[in-house]
Amino acid sequence: MLMVLLGSAGAFAMSAPDAPGTPELGMGIETWKDGWSLLVGLGVTRTRFYTDNQNQENEGHGPNLMTSVGYCDRDAYCLEMGSIVSFDYYSDMTAATTNGDSLSLDVWYWETALFFSVRARLPHYHQHRQFNPWIKLLSGYGASVGYPQRWPAGTPDSLRSLRMQTEGPLYGLSVMNVFNNDKPGRVWFVEGTAIIQMNWNNWLIKGGGLLPEVAQTGHTSGNSYTLLLNLTVGVRVF
Amino acid sequence: MMAMEPMRVRRGFRSSAWGLLLLASLAAGQEERQAYHLSIPSEQQWDTWKQVSLLYAGQWSYYLVGQNENLRQHGSFHNWVSNPGNPHFDKDFYDFNLVLHTMTGSLYYGYYRAFGSSRPRSLALSTLSVLLFEFSVETVTERPSFQDIYQTPVLGAVLGMGLEDLSLLCLESRYAPVRGMGYLLNPFTLVPGSAWQIKLEPQVVSESMGGRLVASFR
After folding, report:
1. Hey, where are the domains in chain A?
2. Beta-carbon pairs below 8 A across chains A and B
3. Collapsed DSSP state (helix, strand, coil) of residue A72
4. Which residues, numbered 62 to 91 in chain B, qualify as contacts with chain A under a Cβ-Cβ cut-off of 8 Å?
5. φ and ψ at A123, to 5 degrees?
6. pLDDT digits (tens, 9 = 90+) for B138-193
7. Can you tell me the distance from the alpha carbon of A39 to that of A4, in angstroms, rounded to the nearest whole number?
8. C-beta atoms of B35 and A2 within 8 A
9. HEC profile for A181-237?
10. CA distance B15 to chain A (A)
11. Please, what CATH class does the domain formed by A2-236 belong to?
12. Whole-structure pTM value
């Protein structure tokens, strides 16, 4: 649906947005400018999950949605708050049960990264036509919620209704190229973001009630983490 | 269905044609892209606070009526006082966090747009409303949620803008059901006194007559 919505952005191609009494551009701007900005993009994510003792590595992949709100100044830097939400599919993850058994599961992970970031034009580089690179440093907190699929036969319903949530701080770096930065045309961008998310706390959550119910709480030794590589294509909405 | 080519030729029409024009206009589309104009009429801050307060009253009404069961099971004065200082990453299901909150955020965004606010301003005011809800309404039952604080206004604004654009696209259609969909996608176009003005503009072009809907944003 969002694709459709983003696609509709091209519907009202008019100029001179923002000034009172002048037409607005449909979901987008035509030249990069200082001030408040909202970036929105869709893309793909590739992840790698490492367990506490580093014994297990699992790879996941799926689509992502990136948003970023911030203030840009001097045509040089932006201070932003942002999020990347991805849905990643992991095959054959090993999960231990409380009675010592282990299960092999496929898991859909809904991964949310919220962060503060500083975005800056690549230092010492002059814009050249369509090559307008920016870099971004980010730091924040993330949550990964796992929905196990393909339970083995005989798994009790009480277990099937559980979902796993892990949380921890995250750090990342992104490289972005802005297109139509210096000539008329809708401003759009391609961004690659690498994030390392620490998995410090975990919960087993029981759904179905009015509010989610925590069935189990745990902490890792701090060594478990997830690497997320995101490639996103988007537009500057305003 | 009348084929419309607005703005090309205008001729005088007879008064008896008005009825036909009005009927035909319901089925007639708009052939050229319409600018929807933005002019914030030097809005006084008092007006903004009235808008925020009205929505805040709506949020309380919704919570007291719509979350009755939740309030009975989990609500307390102690929560209301202690929870604001204890925000966290919530443990909600994704349909709640990503779908319902985004839809709610788009309503907040549309609400402020209907008062004539610009897009950034609508996003800012939506954020204020979300903060008020998270820190002073929902705290009766839950701790404030970081995901909700960010995603409700931001994803809501993105959805709201998309619906706005899609709605205007539908309102241009010559097909009545599609135009109906346009009103559905942005119901604020139907609110009397809203910044969205959908006007009927009768037209006679060449040998046909009819009308078109013109969407504008004051």
Report:
1. 2-236
2. 112
3. strand
4. 69-70, 73-74, 89-91
5. -60, 150
6. 999 999 999 999 999 999 999 999 999 898 888 888 888 998 998 899 888 888 77
7. 17
8. no
9. CCCCCCCEEEEEEEEEEECCEEEEEECCCCCCEEEEEEECCCCCEEEEEEEEEEEEC
10. 33
11. mainly beta
12. 0.79
